Amino acid sequence: MSKLDDKSLTIYEAVKNIDSGKYVMPAFQRQYVWTTEKIENLWDSILQGYPISTFLFWHIDENNVSSDTFFCDFMKEVRFDSTKKADNINYELREVDLKKTDTAILDGQQRLTSLYISLLGETGIRPKSQRRVTNSQILIKLLVELNKNRIETQDDYNLKKYDIHFTNKIAKIEPSQFEIRNILKDEFKNKDTRKDAIETAIKYVPTDSKDYARELLNNLCTKVYEEKLIRYTEMFEMSQDDALEMFVRFNSGGVSLKKSEITMSILEEYWPSAKTQFGNILTGDYANFSTDFIIRTAHMIYGDVVKANISKQITNDLKNNWKDFSNAFKDTANLLKSFKVNIQRFVNSWNVLVPIIFFVYYNPDYQNFSDGIKSYLHRAIFFTYFKSGTTNKLQKIKTGIINYNYEFSTDMLDQISELRVTESKVEELLNLEKENRISEEILYYLSIDWVKSGLKYELDHLHPYERFDKSSPSGVSMKDWAEWRKLRNRLPNLQYLEGRQNASRQDISLQEYYNDMNSTQQSEFKTNSFIPDTSLDIASFNEFYEKRKEILREKIKKLL
What we know:
The chain is of the alpha+beta class. It has helices at about 10-20, 35-50, 110-120, 185-190, 190-200, 210-225, 240-250, 260-270, 275-280, 290-300, 310-320, 320-340, 355-360, 370-380, 390-405, 410-415, 425-430, 435-445, 480-485, 500-505, 510-515, 520-530, 540-560, and strands at about 5-10, 25, 55-60, 70, 75-80, 95, 105, 120-125, 140-145, 165, 175-180, 230-235, 455-460, 495-500. The relative contact order is 0.08.
């Protein structure tokens, strides 16, 4: 059971502890993300006497950290981009010397870093024309205006009282502007010399502002040296796992973290090179996929995919079996290529791939189960299996694969009601309309033998959509025409074709479109678009629709 101890210290004591290496950050801490404006506002709040919230510290010693526990130092130099936001630079991980380091910051990193770089660090602006990878920067300094006559009047919507701002015009600092870091000079620190130091600092301030300037600098000295503004709770006898949990629960400073960012931070605590290793997977076939995809797959293979709480055990299993794990991703990509499936289709629906990777990981003979894997792929996509309840559904498939002795078969899939093929489900697919994403998926997989990589394909109507807004063909009753109008946007009247063809076709009738082709093109068209042997005239739409619907029904059943 961890013990709590509430304490406080001055800003000066806190920044000196950072400078000496007494304070560090756990490896799972995020990047520094504050803007120059937030730093300015922090100092304004301090001078106005507002509390700057509490901090959470973790006492570390040989009893609660091990050789594989990594930390990082506070940033001593921060560079901001042209929008005044800190450039995202990763901290360097290292082990700590417990003889001089005894505290890790769980909550308060953004505020402490801001105070430290204001007083002891270095700040700069990256020129707008420079890329982030360059080290080019323009130094900036944090100033406070001592001449009250130069301070703009504040309105009710601007609660700043003092003129505190960063400037890059270092050579043009006015005599009435005081650099805040200068408050750490010995003459301000020493109470015996402080009065004279302040008088020297305000020497060139106009007479009517000297009292204001004098009071401001005295206040600044008090806030830095005298008042114990850093109020913190220190956690003792707490393991690193408890520290991780505490971080997730109570980290609230700066920009809120996404769950994936917290998970990645925790992973890096246990495995410092995790992000680099993940990056090796997320290239090539898996470019544009997210780290969440890898983490979810790790839970599927090594842990409980429903709970999905990253743990040291799962991380160790992942690290120790990384070669097999990453090979499962490669093998899965190659397997889908053998199906002629473009894996980039799953960038935003990667849960579909997770069971396949799980199966490939555990069954070296996975290629013998290609038909079962294909059936699963089509069912999961067409039936939108992962539309909701994702983790529970992944667990169902995992359990099914295990219960079937690590075999992937249609019998296994039929045990899961949401993946079971029924006539009613097939009928629902056939009645899908063009705007439904699954219509495009169905025609993509039905056409996969002839689609070419690198080309853009689109859905289009066989009998033009707009034709049904015109008068009915001769011999077709108004009632029938009204019914046909309802069917025009459904799957049996949709085709999959290359974008340039679609653009050139415009709205000509199906019969004219077909007649404009040569015999070879007509044959390919009938094969690729599943055209029934019936009239292509609009007057025969109902017969065309019903016959093509039956062709698609059998094709879809075969895919499933």
